[in-house]
Design brief:
Aminoglycoside 3'-phosphotransferase, Chain: A, domain 2, 5-stranded antiparallel β-sheet, 3-stranded antiparallel β-sheet
Amino acid sequence: MSVRVSEAYQALTTETVIRVVEPLDLFPDSSRLTVKEVGDGNLNLVFRIIDPETGRSVVVKQALPYAKVVGESWPLTLDRNRIESEALRLAARYVPELVPAVHHTDETLALTVMEDLSSHVILRKGWIEGSQFPELAGHIGTYVAKTLFYTSDFYLHPFEKKELVKRFINPELCKITEDLVFTDPFFDHETNDFPDGLRPAVERLWNDTDLRREAGKLKYDFLTRAEALVHGDLHSGSIFATRDSTKVIDQEFAFFGPFGFDLGQFFANVVLNWISQEWHARDPEKRSAIREELLSVISGTWDTFVRVLDELWTREAREVYASVPGVKEAFLARVFEDAVGFAGCEVIRRTIGLAHVADLDSIEDSELQIRLKEKALRLGSVLIKERSSVRTTDDLLAAIREVGA
């Protein structure tokens, strides 16, 4: 596969990126700007540009025509930059306080100039260090509820919804999710990556026909249910936070998919950190407190999601069936079941698939790391196979505690 790249496209460097921001009048004097490459993700270049005299700064994110984590052998569409920029601007209509401001987009260079979030910490890093974010659950629950509702058939005219679906067709990024989340980890595939000591647990997973069947059902839901504009990659590395502020970034995987997908990915990353705290929080009392706080993030996120969605549904739903008794309740029950199943897939893929999480991989005790990854695989399997019986957040938290004990 090849990627169409304009002749005018060029990958930026710390020397050339300043030319991008000079015409935007964001800084009074471009001659004194300093630049630092700060990207640590798998796909893109990210630069921070700062005026040392005023302290004003912005971030420039540029898509590469390949996956940075692999190299040019994995070509990747540059259109993901447009999708990310449009998704950010659309989210800003409904939750402007929860996304970075977009200053400029250049489709030829496949870049976006946006608000610098250096005052925030990457949520994954903060969690690993044991930091708490009291407003996080409310913010993520609100973000997911509003961005999904306002891009769904419950709110949009069918013509407007289908036009948006067209704008956010995202086959290449979706294919990454289809493969790396829903397929490869459940088979002996070359993209999988895990220590030799974990192989017995992995082979048990591969030989679990019930698990594969249920994972296949979840993959089909991901492939076919264009319910609302989902973030598509809502893990703890895609969220910047402080104690009172939350910013959701990296919307390049955005597409129209199942309501429960973003919630499932977020829940999974809470769970992975919860498991990893056996290493990161050595003091038992501190570990217990951190873990309870993490579990409250799951319940608080879901509670906020339900509350905000209920308010929007009651006040602004335009679909005639939205007023029929029982429709909302049945819909929310299915969303929760989906979220639990999607969380299970994400837990498994982040444990043995191509892209891991530092929560587990940074554990220096190799025997403990393998033991905790075994727990992650067991929990992921439970969430996938038993999702229909996990009906409430209490059920979900009980399952996490039982497997993690």
